[in-house]
Write a structure and sequence with these properties.
The chain is mainly α. Helix content is 76%, strand content 0%. The protein is elongated.
């Protein structure tokens, strides 16, 4: 884990709890495996399925990204300075060295990073697919295997972006309840 006040990508990665990571990836992995399992039963090539998932990802991910950023703005700008100070001093659920604010901040940051990675990867992959580059003879036997692995990764990132919405909604709700209770004096400083 990290010390308080560490900035940048290193700070995000070091603050994010391994328990959060494990809890957040199990359903996207399951969805990706189901998608991979169903491929042999269809008549569409892995390449075409990859293109479909990437196009859908490019359509949907910007909306999810906008929603997540809006939720983060609500979180940071939600209440009084006293409330933000309170959650900045309250202990983290997973690490005594960090605050509750650090926990919440790291969850938003990891979700945003995953969605930006998903968006960037989808854009560049679609670009290269549209170029219709003909691979050399050496790579042709390995293309389907590569496409399957890449398909799994793209579906995983896309699924993670969708499943992260649940965590975001729960965080916003919990912060709203905590702010209400803090304002009423039920939660003490």
């Amino acid at each position: 884990m990290t010390k308080k006040g560490e900035f940048g990508l290193k700070g995000v990665v070091n603050t994010y709890s391994f328990k959060f990571l494990l809890a957040g990836v199990k359903y996207p992995i399951l969805v990706s495996l189901v998608f991979i399992f169903l491929i042999p039963f269809g008549t569409v090539s892995t390449y075409d399925l990859l293109k479909i998932v990437i196009e859908k990802s490019l359509e949907i991910t910007p909306n999810i990204l906008g929603f997540l950023l809006s939720c983060y703005i609500l979180f940071v700008g939600f209440g009084k300075n006293d409330f933000l100070k309170f959650i900045s001093e309250a202990s983290s659920t997973y690490n005594d060295k960090l605050s509750l604010f650090d926990d919440i901040n790291s969850i938003f940051s990891i979700c945003l990073l995953a969605q930006v990675l998903n968006l960037g990867l989808s854009f560049f992959t679609l670009y290269f697919m549209e170029l219709k580059i003909i691979p050399s003879e050496f790579f042709i036997p390995y293309l389907n295997c590569f496409n399957l692995v890449y398909f799994f990764f793209v579906v995983f990132l896309f699924s993670y972006s969708i499943f992260s919405l649940k965590d975001t909604i729960i965080i916003v709700f919990n912060i709203g309840v905590a702010h209400k209770e803090f304002s009423k004096g039920t939660i003490k400083k």
